[in-house]
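If you are new to this repository, start here. Below is one unmodified record pulled from the training split, so you can see the exact layout before writing a loader.
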Amino acid sequence: MNATKTMRAGVVGWPIGQSLSPAMHGYWISEYGLNAEYLPLAVSPEEFPAAILSLAAKGYRGVNVTIPHKEAAYKLSATLDEDARVTGAVNLLIFEDQKTHGKKIHGRNTDVLGFSSALKEALGDEAARRGPCVVLGAGGAARAIIVALVRSGAEEIRILNRTRARATATAASLGSSQLKIFDWGDWHAAFADAGLLVNTTSLGMTGKNKLDISLDALPVTAGVSDIVYNPLQTELLGAALARGQRTMDGLGMLMHQAVPAFEAWFGVRPIVSAALRANLEAKLNG
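And here is the target side for that same chain:
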């Protein structure tokens, strides 16, 4: 009989039913033969701080954090890695046992690494350097992607958000000279000579509002990325494909950002493989 205690982790969001993270981590747990489980945890914004403390007290190794909790997770963390400090957002919490008192909560941001790895894999090393990059959204995911684009050599990044003030605040917090603010809906100006378009919002996600956008002013040579992965081919990506553009869905970022989390909790560095992608695509299409 194996008396080893089951290692537990999960993903916290509101809502959480759309998340593929349990299927992904479950795949790796099975692949590596671990005594572990990874659970979807629906937690409202009001309940988030108490829920995290409760999970830590119950012996969880940590959790992933998704919409809308990334900024709240930042505030709750006792320590932060560099990417979390720069972006002001946390998508990975690690619970560390303390000899004298409770648990210590470490906050990390793996979205920067996740997006960079996925972008290179899907659209190539030069994807951020083929012209101005256009980023839709100004939340935690947007900040991580902007940081990734800056590090990938983007010379100009145009930010559009439905609330211009939030876009301005995001640009100010990141303090990069490459950042410019455009009005939501001013597609003609924002898309001029662009080399890459990235949707970082939840618009277009299953159960969310539609992303109402026209690509007419976007050069057909521009790459188009959507971090939404449910559905895998969003209307944005479908429209881009119809124009003959290269696209990147949200599954690559999801898989790559999960690697450091799995390793931190379970002690094994998993591989992002074609078999994993096929398994997750089957889940989405099923």
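Two things worth knowing about this chain: The first helix runs from residue 21 to 31. The radius of gyration is 19 Å.
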